[in-house]
Amino acid sequence: MFLFQDTVQEVATEVVPEDSSISIIELVFNGGTGSIIIIGFLLLLLFYALFIYFERVFAINAASKVDKGFMDQIKDNISNGKIEAAKELCHTSDSPVSRLIEKGISRIGKPLDDINKAIENAGTLEVYKLEKNVNVLATIAGAAPMIGFLGTVIGMVLAFHQMATAGGQAEMGMLASGIYTAMTTTVAGLIVGIVAYIGYNHLVTRTGKVVHNMEANVVEFLDLLNEPV
């Protein structure tokens, strides 16, 4: 009877699984020096991507703020021959739209094609300012997953090298631990890449709206110049 109870207790003890949970920090730091370096580099890319994103969001928000009555005031000033007042209004507004209109006002009296060309050149410069560093986000979105995958490949190579040098007698637990730890670099790379990709597309969409607004105001200004006196 006592022997049967001891056997049951031994079986119950063997069946109880051990808690094999591991924190993300432990997973990262157990990956070796190479994994730590790659994940650290990916974190730097993430912080840089977030910095660019928020900096561009604030810049685009500032560029998109145009007084609704701005063009009406420009029309009134130009119709009444108050060119200097129109320039001063553009200078006070200090936005991409106002700078384009100011460039056009400064060319009043010249052929319409010259005015249009001057505005196009100024518009190219304004678009360049709006898109500053946005392409860096696209680069991070493409490079981060590849960097993470590189870390995983390196980890896999090291894990199988350990197995080969052990003459095929390497513990499977240790081998599996090395493999899933190496996979963390791919996860980190994908996270950074997804964040940068979403941020890039959002900025492109917002910039497109600002550019469309600029073009609409320029067309309205050129139509004003084409009106018969």
UniProtKB/TrEMBL annotation:
Keywords: Cell membrane, Membrane, Protein transport, Transmembrane, Transmembrane helix, Transport. Coiled coil: none annotated. InterPro entries: ExbB/TolQ_transport, MotA_ExbB_proton_chnl. GO terms for cellular component: plasma membrane. It is found in: Cell membrane; Membrane. It is a multi-pass membrane protein. Pfam families: MotA_ExbB (PF01618). The chain crosses the membrane at residues 36-54, 136-159, 179-200. Residues 94-215 form the MotA/TolQ/ExbB proton channel domain. GO terms for biological process: protein import. Belongs to the exbB/tolQ family. This is MotA/TolQ/ExbB proton channel family protein. It comes from Abyssalbus ytuae.
